Amino acid sequence: MSENNSFGINVKILRKSKNMTQQDLADYLQVTPNTVGNWESGRSFPPITGDAVGAMNVLFGVQPGDLLGCTPNEILSRRNAKERADLSEEERDLLHLFRRLNAKGRERVIQFTEDLLGNSNYTEIEGTGEDLAVSGAA
To answer: Is the whole-model pTM more than 0.90?
Structure first.
């Protein structure tokens, strides 16, 4: 890998943060896996004004230019801060607790949540915060 390849390093780290393979990213961008591998290794770069860079900005939730001029930690930190800002305090607390669980515990929480969502006594009218059971009783 080229020593001055922040673009390739950023693409690789962000791709992996999305649990994507080179093949997955290649399919999304409609390029070959070899092309993605060449970008990540610094052997080649996509056209800066091309569709691939714009599509990666959207996919990875980064600003134009971030792939080229920021360290991976700066990009991930900025993206995580934006995601956290969109959460209520209660949601942040739940996320913190969820992250403390191992994989088996997380699976149980997800299954339990899906079960609750299947029962209208535990759901809200989407986007209002109003309980369905309360609004239906009026």
So the answer is: no
CB-neighbour burial class of residue 6 (10 A; exposed 0-12, middle 13-18, buried 19+): middle
Residue 61 falls in which region: left (phi positive, over 0), alpha (psi -120 to 50) or beta: left
Domain 6-84 part of CATH 1.10.260.40: yes
Give dist(CA 96, CA 75) in Å, integer: 21
Average pLDDT, the chain: 79
Domain assignments of the chain as residue spans, ordered by start: 6-84, 87-137
Cα separation, 104 vs 126, whole angstroms: 29
- Of residues 132 and 38, more confidence is placed in 38
